[in-house]
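Cbb3-type cytochrome oxidase assembly protein CcoS
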Amino acid sequence: MDVIVYLIPISLFLGGIGLGFFFWTLKNRQYDDPDGDANRILTDDWDDHPRP
């Protein structure tokens, strides 16, 4: 039962780090063009990127 005294602050700290990184990705505009990425996967642009 004593270990819970250590686990709760550690989990809150790690959750805060994860939340901080999420806000950092929002600030650096990582999620601006999700439709462009989805369409880029589906296109067949072999002329732009020739096979080796």
